[in-house]
Design a protein that fits this description.
This protein has 179 residues and is an alpha/beta fold. Helices cover 21% and strands 35% of the residues. The chain has a 6-stranded mixed β-sheet with strand order 5-4-3-6-7-8, with helices on both faces. It has a 4-stranded antiparallel β-sheet with strand order 1-2-10-9. The radius of gyration is 17 Å and the shape is globular. The chain binds guanosine-5'-monophosphate. Guanosine-5'-monophosphate binds at residues 48, 102-110, 155-157, 161-163.
Length: 179
């Protein structure tokens, strides 16, 4: 399908499923090489990264531990800004090699706010694997260790990413079509 309709918006094909699969396999090979001899904890950030995580771990040649979390943002009552915490984080991170698995890094706000919370638990290392990155939109100095595709600053759906809860099921990724 070259175009899909999701609610009131039309999206056009951006990354074909085959290209995504090839790149995800390469990422898994690179992570496996970098983490040889260790058992990293893959912390997959729901909802968007469920397909990416499933495909990524299938190509690993190391033995991973895999867990899923949701991030929630709270506005402080007095403080400026908000903080982000993890729901469902039930693994002890002390001394673990952690790989955060994200669908997309846009402004970087979510990860930037969550990282201090994670580091409090004293993991041995934290690396970030994101399928997509919008460099033009990112406003924080995040080190992204594994990036599938750097993409322009346009809204995308498919392969786990939604528009208002719709469109996650597609194997390809679509970007908002010009009006
Ligand atoms: P950030 O905190 O980096 O700005 O945004 C992270 C979250 O915003 C992502 O995990 C994702 O849920 C959402 N997001 C950012 N850009 C897009 C996009 O182009 N499409 C979709 N579907 N979600 C996005």
């Amino acid at each position: 399908m070259s175009r899909i309709q999701v609610l009131d918006k039309t999206f056009e094909i951006f990354l074909e499923s085959d290209a995504i699969q090839r790149r995800v396999k390469e990422m898994a090979q690179q992570i496996s090489a970098d983490c040889a001899g260790t058992r990293p904890l893959f912390l997959s950030i729901l909802n968007g990264s469920f397909l990416f995580t499933a495909d990524l771990v299938r190509h690993l040649t190391i033995e991973p531990e895999i867990s899923f979390i949701k991030l929630a943002s709270y506005k402080g009552m007095r403080s400026t800004g908000s903080f982000t915490t993890a729901i469902g984080l039930d693994v002890d991170l002390l001394d673990r090699e952690v790989i955060l698995v994200e669908d997309i890094v846009d402004t970087g706000n979510t990860l930037f706010q969550f990282l201090p919370h994670l580091l409090q638990q004293q993991p041995r290392s934290v690396r970030i694997a994101t399928l997509l990155h919008k460099p033009e939109a990112t406003r924080h100095p995040l080190t992204l260790d594994y990036v599938g595709f750097s993409i322009p600053n346009k809204f995308v759906v498919g392969y786990g990413l939604d528009y208002d809860g719709w469109g996650r099921q597609h194997g390809s990724i679509y970007q908002l079509a010009a009006e």
